[in-house]
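fwd from M.: "can u put these together and see what the complex looks like"

so here's what she sent:
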Amino acid sequence: MNSVPPAAPALPAASPRSADLIARSRAVVWHPCTQMKDHEWLPLVPVAKAEGVWLETPDGHRIIDAVSSWWTNIFGHRHPVIVEHLKRQLDTLDHVLLAGFTHEPVVSLSEKLVALTPEGLSRCFYADNGSSAVEVALKMSVHYWRNVGRPEKTRFAALSNGYHGETLGALGVGDTGLYRDTYKSLLLDPVVLPSPDCSLMQVGGRGAGESWEDYSRRRFADARQILEAHADTLAAVIVEPLVQCAGGMRMYHAIWLKLLREACDALGIHLIADEIATGFGRTGQLFACDHANITPDFICLSKGITGGTLPLAVTLTNERVYEAFYDDYATGKAFLHSHSYTGNPLACAAALGTLAVFDQCNWMAIVRGLGQLMWTQTAALRQHPQVAEVRQQGMILAVELAQSPHQRAPYPAADRRGLRAYQHALTRGVLLRPLGNTLYLMPPYVITAAELGRVCDVLIEAVDVATRP
Ligand code: PMP
C-alpha cells in the first residue's frame, strides 16, 4: 500500500531550536488523529504564536489558518475582545465547581445562549468538549423517557456518514467507518437513517439534474419509514444540521430538517441537533437549524463558542425535558452527570467575549459576503477534470476530488491525495487539512479579501498537485 505520498518539504528546513522542539514533541506527545510513524518523514509544524488568521512558527514562517484550527477559531487567534474578557476573569475567579455553586460568567452566558438559540431552548447544561455535550444529550433523552414512564425508549437513530465525536457514546452514534470500525464491539448500535447528502459522489444519490431540495425530500421519505418502524423504542434522532462535516463536508437542504422536526413531533422522538461544527454562524445563519426555522429538543454547542480559545461545551434543552427531572430527590429523577470543569468561569468568560464580538456588527452579512467571494475565487475548480464537485454552505467550501467524476469513482484512500494537498499548501503558507479526497476551506470570519484570495489560489494549486498521476 502506498501510504507515503511524495515527500515535499512542508516548510523550509527548521532552525536548530525548532528541530529540537519537534524532536521533543515526537519523544513524549502522542498527537491526535495521527499515525505517528508519518512524522518520520512528515515534519510536525511548531507554532510559537498566532494573531488573526495567522499562525507563526518559531522561525518566523507565517501560515494562514484556513481551517480555523479544527473549526474553533471563528474570529481569528487572540481576538482582543476575547483576550480582554479572559484577562479580566483571571483577576477574579479561575474555577469553582458548579454543583451547589454558581458565578456571574456562567449565568450571563446561559442567559445569552437562551436568547440566541432557537426559540424554546431554555436550560443550559455544560461540559468541556463536543463529544461530552453529545453524550449529555443522549443520556438526558433516555433519562427523560424513563422519568415519564417510557423506559423502553433507549435507542437512537443517526445518519449514515454522520460524526458526533470520539468518546464511546458519541462514536456510537457516528457512522464514519475510519473512526468507528475498530471499536465497533464497544459501541451503541443505532438505527441508521440514509443521509440526505446531496453530493454527486454519493453512489445512487442525487441525479445531476435534481435539485438539492427535491433530493432531500426524496431521501426523507426513506428516513420517515425507518423512524416509523422504530418509534416505540427510539429515544432520539441525532443529526448534524445541513453539513456532515467530519464525514467530508457533505451537505443537504434545510427542508430535510423541517420534515424531520415534523416527524419527530408526530412520532414522539426527540431531535438532537449537533451544532458543534455548524453553530455560531458557520453556515451563514447563527445556527444551522435557523435555516429550517426549527427548534430541536437538544442542541449541542462547542468549538466556536469560545472563539477557539478554551474548551467549553453546552447542551441546551427545553422546559418539558427539564421538568421531567425536577422532583423530590428520593424519586431518583435527577440528572447525576458531571465533569470537573463544568461551567469553568474562564471558558465562560471567553464565550462571553465571543458573543461580545458577535454584537459588534452584522457578522452573518460578513460571512455571507466572504462565502460569495470564496465561491467566485474558486470558479476555476468547477471546470477541473478531477473535481467531481465544489459545494458550499456559508463559510464552508468543499472540493471533492475524484479519479473519475462522471462515474462517481473516488481516488483510493491509500493514495492519500489530501495529504499531498496539505503538504503543498503548507509550502505556500496556508493550512488546509483535507478529509480524505475532500479539500475544504473553513477560515475565520476575520479573514480579509486579500487573504482569502491567497487561500483560494493556494487551494487551486493544491488541487492540481493532489490530482497529478
Ligand atoms: N460533533 C461534531 C459535529 C463535530 O464536528 C465534532 C468535532 N469535530 C464533535 C461533535 C466532537 O467534538 P470534540 O472534538 O470537541 O469532542
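replying to her w this: The chain has a mean pLDDT of 96.
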